[in-house]
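STRUCTURE:
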């Protein structure tokens, strides 16, 4: 079949089924599979967080205008903010139940636009900042089994206004909130230890006049307990306790920005060999836009996005960036860690920058990055979606190994007609090739421990699995993934630990016992809820929730 004909058929299928509440599945000879879950959840998925009960909290902003989903029981929200509806009876947040493929309206009281969040050790979503009346708010969502739980808000929970800031969970369970527009500092939540802000000149130094290019900084907890903070085109290692920069990293070759609005993405690559004294940690930064792209796009000139990734060992005494070339240029893309240690690049545009109406040429094809392969063979293009996911789109990994994808609204309000990229209210799931049925005999099924079990630091732990096919014991490994808060092309708190296996023994009837050692310190893995997977020959099991304490 000719390629144009194939593309036409895929688009035709999408149009035929777009209004149906079904699970449309698109496949081809290219790796992966797309599934249309919901044609509309009523709001655009700008922010996304998976919770320990396999529900995903999603929200956009309260001053987009009236959404396509009403608040329940006649609820309405009063808003005196400029540009917002004074009385708004529509929802701007939903809870999506993965298992039932259903959703319900939630009520946020203040504006959560371009905010940040993290899961605390007790499993609550703590979300911070936003715009106007929401800029100093802290909001808490506690998972529950009923349909009654909703957002709770803490007025003046922040010491400074936080808009386009980044959160990270710390080894002691607190949250650090870094930066934000015109905020060259950081603070902590809750305020029981340190109530004030702490200056961070690095954020001022990386601020490009007229464009910024340092918002939503990429923040990762290093294995030594310090914070790796990347903004614009360079990074530092911060001792946040002493408010001291302990290392300055070189600028990425070429010097082009990777932070909002020249939005690239970044991940802390999987942490391996956790028992080694000289444990290494690597960061991968991909995509973005050349310097000046925001200003040029504002004038109608949409410059091609960056096609490079930069990789660095942040624990190296003399770290250097190593450059790689992606198959597709990408700005506003997301990078999602998969249970088998691969990285999925998804969403975004091929030119322009982040901002209202400033992106062009949607990148429909995800790309798989395989970090353990040699340079030149690490990228593999996946099957394309039919739905552009431009500015304000999002993605997150689910417990079953799929990647949930939603959002895209490059407009100041909800806009569905007479625009290049209409506001997108749908939800899709991307299934990597490891979910293909042809791998079912290699796929582990975790029998014990049971989901929601507690595990302790630096302990030998047994995992019992069933694998019906032939087992390669040296290719069996356990991994632990921290659920991430995703917005604006960055998954905050995303972290994958490779526990490996200390020993694999058979117990008959296709059952195997896998002995692993849990992470030894809070610096490696802050306390809280993780998804535990068993991976066999790169095929992961479904995850189970465990609580590390």
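SEQUENCE:
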């Amino acid at each position: 079949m000719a390629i144009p004909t194939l593309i036409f058929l895929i688009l035709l299928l999408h149009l035929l089924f777009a209004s149906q509440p079904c699970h449309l599945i698109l496949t081809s000879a290219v790796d992966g599979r797309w599934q249309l879950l919901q044609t509309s959840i009523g709001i655009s998925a700008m922010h996304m967080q998976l919770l320990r009960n396999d529900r995903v909290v999603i929200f956009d902003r309260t001053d987009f205008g009236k959404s396509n989903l009403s608040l329940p029981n006649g609820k309405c929200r009063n808003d005196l903010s400029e540009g917002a509806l004074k009385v708004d009876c529509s929802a701007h947040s939903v809870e999506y139940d993965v298992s039932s493929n259903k959703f319900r309206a939630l009520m946020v009281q203040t504006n959560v636009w371009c905010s940040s969040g993290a899961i605390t050790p007790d499993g609550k979503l703590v979300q911070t900042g936003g715009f106007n009346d929401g800029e100093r708010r802290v909001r808490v969502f506690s998972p529950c089994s009923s349909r009654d739980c909703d957002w709770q808000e803490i007025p003046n929970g922040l010491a400074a206004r936080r808009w386009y800031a980044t959160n990270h969970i710390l080894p002691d369970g607190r949250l650090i909130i870094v930066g934000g527009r015109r905020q060259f500092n950081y603070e902590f939540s809750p305020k029981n230890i340190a109530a004030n802000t702490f200056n961070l000149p690095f954020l001022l130094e990386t601020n490009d006049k007229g464009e910024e290019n340092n918002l939503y900084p990429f923040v990762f907890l290093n294995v030594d307990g310090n914070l790796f903070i990347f903004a614009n085109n360079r990074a530092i290692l911060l001792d946040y306790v002493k408010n001291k920069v302990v290392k300055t990293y070189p600028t990425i070759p070429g010097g082009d920005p990777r932070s909002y609005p020249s939005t690239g993405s970044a991940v802390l690559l999987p942490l391996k060999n956790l028992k080694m004294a000289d444990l290494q940690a690597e960061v991968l930064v991909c995509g973005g836009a050349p310097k000046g792209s925001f200003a040029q796009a504002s004038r109608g000139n949409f410059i091609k996005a960056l096609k490079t990734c930069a990789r660095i060992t942040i624990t190296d005494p003399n770290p250097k960036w190593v450059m790689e070339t992606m198959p597709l240029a990408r700005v506003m893309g997301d990078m999602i860690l998969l249970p088998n240690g691969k990285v999925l690049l998804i969403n975004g545009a091929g030119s322009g920058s982040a901002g209202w109406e400033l992106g062009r040429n949607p990148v429909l094809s995800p790309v798989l990055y395989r970090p353990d392969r040699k340079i030149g063979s690490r990228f593999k293009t996946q099957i394309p979606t039919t739905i552009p996911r431009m500015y304000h789109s999002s993605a997150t990994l689910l417990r079953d190994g799929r990647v949930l994808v939603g959002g895209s609204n490059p407009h100041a309000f909800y806009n569905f007609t007479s625009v290049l990229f209409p506001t997108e209210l749908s939800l899709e799931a991307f299934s990597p090739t490891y979910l293909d049925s042809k791998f079912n005999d290699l796929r582990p099924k975790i029998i014990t421990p049971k989901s929601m079990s507690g595990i302790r630091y630096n302990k030998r732990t047994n995992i019992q699995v069933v694998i019906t096919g032939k087992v390669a014991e040296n290719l069996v490994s356990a991994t632990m993934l921290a659920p991430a808060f995703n917005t604006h092309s960055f998954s905050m708190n995303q972290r994958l630990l490779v526990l490996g296996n200390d020993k694999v023994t058979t117990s008959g009837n296709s059952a195997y016992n896998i002995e692993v050692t849990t992470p030894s310190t809070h610096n490696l893995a802050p306390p809280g809820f993780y998804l535990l997977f068993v991976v066999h020959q790169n095929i992961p099991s479904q995850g189970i929730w465990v609580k590390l304490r």
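REMARK: Helices lie at 3-17, 201-205, 293-298.
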